[in-house]
Specification:
This protein is mainly α. The protein has 9 helices and no strands.
Length: 206
Amino acid sequence: MSSDSVRIPQQKRSAQKKQAIIQAGYTLFCQQGYYQTNTAQIARAAGVSVGIVYSYFHDKKDILREAVLLYLTELEQTLLPVLQSLTSTQDSLVFLEKLIDLVLKSHTMQPAAHDQFMAMALLHQDIMTLFEQFQQKFLDQVVEQMVQAGYAKPLLREKVRIAYGMIEQFCHRQLARPAPEASISIAKKLVASTIQNLLEADIFDN
């Protein structure tokens, strides 16, 4: 069911009920999983009747979609101020290490939500599309911030996309196999140095 089927409340009280349903779904999906959660449980947690839930949402999948959007909105509100704090006054390696920390934070600030919603994204293309749109917006913001920080280089957008893939791999490895802080610091510096070389490479010189 498309998001167009979700009823948009016109009154404040109705909007509050809808938001309570989304928040309840968000919490329950994270606590016990999407498939272990039903609309009756969501209604009970939101303090409304099942009928009220269905007056705003066609089915549980619609609630999932709105819960993922809520998660991504909260993620953006947390990450954007940190991203904007990266400036040209910092050494390039420091800049890149902080960018790596920022992406790692996106994976760990709400681990239950991240794991549950990413798992659902692998099963549902419309949920995956929400994450892809978020990633594209985030990369656009990274490019804009890097231009302001003095990284106005040829092919910057393409280089940032490749660099982001490298950072994602680093983050997933750290989450899968936690290492001592000293080892993480060394690995992070190696990743930052590799990305720095990529950003500064003039690949069409020859």
